[in-house]
Write a structure and sequence with these properties.
The structure holds two protein chains of two kinds.
Chain A: H1 4-15, H2 22-33, H3 38-48, H4 52-59, E1 73-78, H5 81-85, H6 88-99, E2 112-117, E3 129-131, E4 134-136, H7 141-154
Helix pairs in contact in A: 1-2, 1-3, 2-3, 3-4, 6-7
Chain B: H1 21-28, H2 31-41, H3 53-62, E1 69-74, H4 83-90, H5 92-106, E2 110-115, H6 123-140, E3 145-150, H7 160-167, E4 191-195, H8 196-208, H9 210-215, E5 224-231, E6 237-242, H10 247-254, E7 259-264, E8 270-273, E9 281-282, E10 292-293, E11 298-303, H11 308-322, H12 328-345, H13 353-367, H14 371-392
Parallel strand pairs in B: 1-2, 1-4, 2-3, 5-11, 9-10
Antiparallel strand pairs in B: 5-6, 7-8, 7-11
Classes of the chains: A alpha+beta, B alpha/beta.
Chain lengths: 157, 393
Amino acid sequence: MPDTTKLIENLVEKYGKKRESLLPILKGIIEEERYLSEDRMLEVAKALDISGAEVYGTASFYSFLDLKPRGKHIIRVCKTIVCDMKGKNEVLKTIKDCLGINVGETTSDGTFTLLQTNCIGQCDHAPAMLIDGEVYNELNAEKVRNIIKEYKLNRQN
Amino acid sequence: MASQVKRADIIFAPYSEYPYKILGEALKKSPDDIIDALIKSGLRGRGGAGFPTGLKWKFAKKAQGDEKYVVCNADEGEPGTFKDRDILVKVPRKMLSGMGICAHVTGATKGFIYLRAEYDYLKDALQKEIDFFHQHCEKYGLDFHVEIKSGAGAYVVGEETALLNSAEGKRGEPRNKPPFPVTEGFLNKPTVVNNVETFVNAMMVCRIGAEEFAKYGMRGQKGSKLFSIAGDTPKPGVYELELGLTVEELVNEFGDGNTKAVQVGGVSGFCVPSAKFKEKTIGFPGKDDVNYIPTGGSIMLFNHTRSMYHVLENYLEFFEEESCGQCTPCRVGTQQLLKGIKAIKKGKKDPAYLDTLYKLAETMKITSKCGLGQSVANSFCSIVDEFKEEIIY
């Protein structure tokens, strides 16, 4: 993990000090640290010369900008109507069983966080989920178990 | 034989010419000629609201500003919609051509594609296409630069002024209108915001001509439209069909033989029960024409195994989470509707309470600030009207 002050410096350099840069910078921090801590938000506020409240107000608006510590891999299972009809509950149950966590929780080793999300535009291949932005669709229990297994085995680093 | 849907093949039809040929040709035409063609074609915005595209471009062209913007709304968040995803993957050059033509018409020099966070996985391939597009802009002498702006997970940002706020790095809350984006949009500069599909269609009007484009469509509707078909159907997917088809024709083609209701236009649209399949037409309504239902493309089919209470509860959970909270009717209304139907279902509230909720939904329609709060009543009232027993018992 890069030095965090350095991380924000790099992001500000990449996207600029304009107000429009706020979202890309926050997303850049999420990419590295998975969530936005109070300290990080204050650092960003200082770097962009806006108030901490502005940064927090913006960050808290968006569901993909987490404000709580998250695991290395964030699983977001779609819960909107079509995925719900096509077996979302089975997908959720399988993940809960595999990882021993409930929705909103993170595994004790900090590897996975399980969340639900609204429509991800995969209704023609429902049920579907995102893991760190990658799409997995046409899910069933077996497929979910294999995906989780693959993440545990191959994506440790 | 039952009447059938009419397929069209404009959007995904393969290019027979070299890349960006149509863009090059369009750049030689005068902006006014292109605007006239768009108006003549009858093209209306494909995101769902249906504003005439030619007029929007005309207003932006007329608007005074040292800098203008062209914005592609790829924040496809309406439940049941996924057609823009297919355009971004399969025919991004047609979309970028449309943006380039819009830049030529309006005099914009900058543009961006607002890509929803859920589609982050499309970003790298899209960026490569944008680089390729820029090479052609340079070749044709078009001073226009496009970038991708990524969303961060918020349905309401699909509303154009909320999108502009989000692109400016702010909370994605809708603005008051007027002023409209064509005069004060991104960074308060004149801005055209169009849906992904609209840009493709604008490009196709330039390619096949307004008359040819307007030949598509039935029952007075113009053009073809992409539909995202999902739910209880044996063949979910993206289909291009002529506008103006009835729900019955759609069900004949895509239903599973047991269709009970069709949700047209996503959760912000209307639920059509089987008794009304024949009379409801998909397209843009004229004045007071209740039998036309517009859609950004979302079509969800439900068969008789589905509980409409469960469907409505799922919708309301969606709205409650996605309401931006800025205005009270929507923030409190979505919460109370959800709480209310749960209480009725559990017997904690009298069935007559549903009438109170109905009035609340109608109040939200006239008092909410943006399309989100205003449209909750569409699905709420259309489901309650037809499936009252299912909601109560």
